[in-house]
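Reproducibility note. Readers wishing to regenerate the assembly model reported in the main text can use the exact inputs given here. Chain order matters: entities are listed in the order in which they were concatenated for prediction.
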Amino acid sequence: MSIQLERRKAVQTDEVAGYERMLEIREFENQINGLFAAGLIRGTTHLCLGQEALDIALAAELRPTDTVMATYRGHGIALALGLTPESVLGEIMGKTIGCCGGVGGSMHLADMTLGLLPTSAIVGGGIPIAAGAGLAYQLLGQDNVGVAVFGDGATNIGAFHEGLNLAAIWKLPVIFICDNNVYGEYSRIDKTTPLEDLHMRADSYKMAHYAVDGMDVHATRKGIKEAVDRARSGGGPTLIEAKTYRFAGHSRADKALYRPEGELEKWMERDPIKLTEEDLVKRGLLDSAKIEKMRADMTKTIEGVVATCQAAPDPTVASMFENVFTK
Ligand SMILES: Cc1ncc(C[n+]2csc(CCOP(=O)(O)OP(=O)(O)O)c2C)c(N)n1
Ligand SMILES: [Mg+2]
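Running the prediction on these inputs yields the following structure tokens for the assembly.
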């Protein structure tokens, strides 16, 4: 079994491994901040800090044969699904060891063996693509599912409504997951969208829909499982709204000064990593000494990944034209 599939299996079979992956995502994103400031990452980058529970829940409930379309805020999803930190950071730093050979960058992460189509910067763009994957599975008679993960802002895009309508009328095996992290770029949701519970929009397509607590890995897994079971058994699509919060700004150096005072602190009381630790300790699966060691080990591991990626070769200019066509 490849290392990627082993990593995927770990989060599906072991809750402590799931917690460890959340730490990996957190540490990874914290390092990216510093690398960006040091000029070692070109272009831009969007951190998923605060959204680790959703990433792990997805990876735990989906099979590698399902298809996932995610957004530019996709580092955590890629790591959770099983891509190695070297292949994700290598891609972000534009190195040949990256999952797309270093020519894609932070917003274009992919691994077809794990079902991750290239992540995309086009807001809402993944929604019709996931519906298309669902249509393919329906026509082929396979019980795989197409999944689109997108932000709250994407629910105001035409592709959201077209994708949901098509999936509903053809009862496609698709799961639409909206990570409602309260902000779309630099705008608070209440400035752009006239309703709070975005999952209600699925009502107009007669589609199953509900919200889940996106800070709680168990609640999110339960919601995704229900949708997966419905899709695999021919029951059609579901819109899930995961209520989360973006701990960082929109991208790179954005300090998010537009946030009301105290809002971040209030959400950080329900930091998904903290909630998971409390749960695992309560159930006797971890204790504070083990947690401290896991955190320290993860910091070292990711520092090692950074060193590996810094030392890795840059792609040639010619490699830009290499994977453009397929036979
Ligand atoms: C089709 C399209 N329109 C506009 C943009 C510019 N844009 C980039 S991110 C963003 C906000 C999206 O909000 P949300 O879906 O909540 O994502 P988040 O910022 O939470 O990641 C916009 C409008 C884009 N990338 N694609
Ligand atoms: Mg958002």
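We highlight two features of this model. Strands lie at 67-69, 146-151, 174-180, 183-184, 187-188, 208-213, 238-243. The radius of gyration is 19 Å.
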